[in-house]
């Protein structure tokens, strides 16, 4: 990094901005098996993934990580060859007893251009979960979340929040390394409207036996910071920014319901 660029970054991020770091793999309990994850959630940030992962983890055939962690962020820093960690190390995070499955959900894997390939090398047979949210609602929540976690009021924050909303582009990258049959794409809005059906669909995709819906399924939903308020002009610019990507998304994934994304009702008809 040049001195000039270093100065720019220091001015942009004058305060610590927390980042999660992969811990050491847990010890494997006696009689359990170590293997790559059976499922990995790869997207997206601020779309209810913590809620949905917690519902999946309630299934008796899903082995929780020893520390209860949802997100490993294993591939976050592997953007160059010097930072790569072996696939065997990744597998050691997923001990499970016979008959159980194990996995994690790190929402930024779909966003980072290098992560899908790294994931495919480490867990080529994994089933991938993608939970999407209206990109403009996700943008508002993403900006607020970053600011609440010590990010500065800088254009880098807005640019990052915007980039995370190009779902079709990101899914195209994921599908270069995984078969379409390995990927389940969900909508937060549909999960909120009919959580029982969507959770049953998720269980079936993961090869899990049907289970009664958790009693609090409709109570535990997307939570977080109060979303940023957008002016009409700001919203219009975001619609223009996303409309081509959103149109491609609904064309390529017809199981998604465009009527649930109110911000694009007029733009895509």
Task: Describe the protein's topology.
Layout: H1 3-12, E1 33-34, E2 39-43, H2 49-57, H3 87-91, E3 95-96, E4 103-105, H4 115-122, E5 127-132, H5 135-148, H6 155-163, H7 167-174, E6 183-187, H8 188-193, H9 195-205, H10 232-252, H11 265-268
Parallel strand pairs: 2-4, 2-5, 5-6
Antiparallel strand pairs: 1-3
Helix pairs in contact: 5-6
What keyword list fits this structure?
alpha/beta, 269 residues, two-stranded antiparallel ribbon, 11 helices
Describe the structure.
With 269 residues, this protein is an alpha/beta fold. The chain contains eleven helices and six strands. The protein has helices at residues 3-12, 49-57, 87-91, 115-122, 135-148, 155-163, 167-174, 188-193, 195-205, 232-252, 265-268; strands at 33-34, 39-43, 95-96, 103-105, 127-132, 183-187. The strands form two sheets. Strands 4-2-5-6 form a four-stranded parallel beta sheet. A two-stranded antiparallel ribbon has the order 1-3. α5 (135-148) runs antiparallel to α6. The radius of gyration is 19 Å and the shape is globular. The termini are far apart. The model has no long low-confidence stretch (mean pLDDT 90).
Count of distinct strands: 6
Order of helices and strands: HEEHHEEHEHHHEHHHH
Helix content: 25-40%
Q: How does the helix and strand content classify structurally?
A: alpha/beta
Radius of gyration: 19 Å
Overall form: globular
End-to-end gap: 46 Å
Largest sheet, strands/sense/barrel: 4 strands, parallel
Task: Please state roughly what percent of the residues sit in beta strands, choosing from under 5%, 5-15%, 15-25%, 25-35%, 35-45% or over 45%.
Answer: 5-15%
Tally of individual helices: 11
Uncertain regions spanning at least 5 consecutive residues: none
**What does the average pLDDT come to?**
90
The strand line-up of the biggest sheet is 4-2-5-6
